[in-house]
Amino acid sequence: MLLATTRQRGLTGLMQRPLGIQLCRFHATSTFWQDQDEQRKRRSVDYKLRGKGRQFVDFLRVVARGGNGGDGCVSFHREKFLAKGPPNGGNGGRGGSVIIRASSDETTLKRLGRACTGKRGENGLGGGRHGTKGDDLVIEVPVGTIVREVAPSTKSNSNDDDDYELNEREKREKRWVYYPRTDPDQHDVPGRKNYFNEAERMMDEEERYLEWRERKERLQGAINVDLSEHDQQVVVCFGGSGGYGNPHFLTTDNRSPKWATRGRPGEVRSLELELKTIADIGLVGLPNAGKSTLLGSISNAHPKQGSYAFTTLHPFVGTVDYADQYQLTVADIPGLIQGAHRNIGLGHAFLRHVERAKLLVYVVDLSGDAPWDDLATLQNELEQYRPGLTKRQSLIVANKADQVAIAKGNLAKLEDKVRANNIPVVPVSAKYEKNIVKLTSILRKQVETIRKQEAERRLQQQEFDQQDSLDSDSDSDDRTL
Fold it and tell me: Quick one: a GO cellular component term (predicted)?
């Protein structure tokens, strides 16, 4: 009875609450969620502009390590009626190398880690069985990646005498593998020959030779390779050699060596990977000039399009297909603003992708106040980033020509401004795909001309190299005579 009365009072009090208070509560809740959405949008824009939300990475520093070699084995042949057989421990396998290979299936360096290590070689086994080689680590990168070696930071080590002795002991433990119940110090017996010291001297000589060979390789220069073709590869780190089994130390005096060596560590290199997109045509323009819309109208690409700045946050490459199976590649570069060479806006993070373009296409907005000023800004930023870049063959695409009221007068003024520079101007409307066929025809003619000139230069260079080699061979023959 008491419980029923309490429930009735609770329901009565709930029904007696003013309706306005409930509405205020719902209104406050909706306002709270609206503020949360606005903060989330603002935060996401800042997140993208800081580069944290990009799924495209074109510059990366990695540490590559070759796989360590496998350890040698200490073993002796045992069988019936043969109690003390010869040593038969196998050598360790070589560690895997680190290989960087260019692949047309990759478009970004995002999949790479900060550290890349090859597989370790397997240890040797008894019965003369050598360890297998570790698997190579093949890293696939996009075509157009430049691999550069970076000098590691040097650290000065000052050790005391006790630390030096400890390091010598550690070095001995890292170098040798002992037979069970074998102590290397027990070989120091007065009046007897120390075979272990002879083995250590032999390994010291090999260490000195390997250090000399490493210094000689460093004099040849650091790694600097441009992977500009599909399946082109470079070995950046070789794996360490495997350790020796105890038969390696067999001599006429020492018939039962009870030690083997451990595998050597692989090479370690600090590398810089820089991706420069390889495309025939590079679209350059201010934000919201219509570059993504133009790329979508002339190629098979489907980039993100929107009527706001910085729609494109990373380079987008599309292919222009012609009826006779001829193809061109077009790269959409994120928008540049004034001061981009000083890393303002998205900065010069993507200007490196313009360097490889055979033809520069400036996309300007004809509906703006002064498209000729926009063109001057673009040319100035490119020239400040890399002098001589604006001297490359170029074309001006006057976009948004469908807004006739403003575009018609701006087009005439723009043509007057650039007439002295002899840069052709093509008015188009990328949104409605007007004058696109004429634009693709002009692009093809200019790219074909550039490709023909490059082929002639390559042919001349090959002829020059062949002539130079023939001259050097004739000089060597004259010297022998």
Answer: mitochondrion
